[in-house]
Specification:
The protein is an alpha+beta fold. The protein is built from six helices and eight strands. Helix 1 crosses helix 3. The longest helix has 16 residues. The structure holds coenzyme A.
């Protein structure tokens, strides 16, 4: 079970559930083909973004495996919406979860995605007591691979042509971190 107190604060960011006030800012980046190039969906219309915000993205807690917690990421100093992140609770018995993130191109290159992804690991390991957190992505998504490596996740596998993705076969890279690795990094002062 995970019932976060919102907003979740990091050094420069606030993470919180989306509201109707986020529709336009979120649509601005989720409607872009370059942003969606490696995402498992096509550029979204404003109506699609609005529907998801009032639907699947409105969850504020995780009560059972199989659910996903989607959160907006805003710049604490300005209140500007930078992107959004997701924590999936995959399996209760094996205590596994998965993370994902999407940021507006205007927010790129400042370490915001790295900071938010680190907060997702904390939510998974501390909040949900997960044993293993993974990320899976198109192996060509170099910027995203670098985010995962910066937060200390290990590249465990490269699954060749396992996905028929946007009209071509694509390779999936699998990244992971285990609970004890998280603990060690916290104790070593690498994070938080
Ligand atoms: C994946 C994505 C979030 C990466 O964005 P990003 O801007 O590269 O990542 P960050 O915000 O963490 O910024 C990191 C960059 O800023 C630089 N940087 C500047 N200040 C920094 C700081 N304080 N801390 C960390 N990095 C910093 C880093 O060097 C890095 O650049 P580099 O990768 O060229 O070395 C972004 O490309 C995106 O949203 N893409 C579309 C959606 C997508 O593909 N999502 C992932 C699906 S798996």
């Amino acid at each position: 079970m995970l019932h976060p107190d919102y907003p979740l604060a990091t050094e420069r960011l606030l993470l919180r559930p989306a509201t109707a006030a986020d529709i336009d800012d979120m649509h601005a980046y989720k409607s872009r083909p370059d942003v969606c190039r490696y995402l498992p969906y096509d550029p979204m219309s404003r109506a699609e973004v609005a529907e998801r915000i009032s639907g699947v993205w409105s969850r504020t807690e995780l009560t059972e495996a199989g659910q996903a917690l989607n959160l907006c990421v805003e710049e604490a100093a300005s209140g500007r919406l930078l992107g959004d992140v997701v924590l999936f609770w995959r399996d209760a018995e094996n205590r596994t979860g998965e993370i994902g993130y999407v940021f507006a191109p205007e927010a790129a290159g400042r370490g915001y995605a790295t900071e938010a992804a680190g907060a997702l690991l904390a939510l998974g390991f501390e909040g949900l007591a997960l044993h293993r957190v993974t990320a899976r992505l198109d192996a060509r998504n170099d910027a995203s691979c670098r985010v995962l490596e910066r937060i200390g996740m290990r590249r465990e596998a490269l699954h060749l042509q396992d996905m028929w993705f946007k009209n071509e076969w694509s390779d999936t890279a699998i990244y992971a971190m285990l609970e004890y690795e998280w603990r060690e990094s916290v104790e070593a002062g690498v994070r938080r």
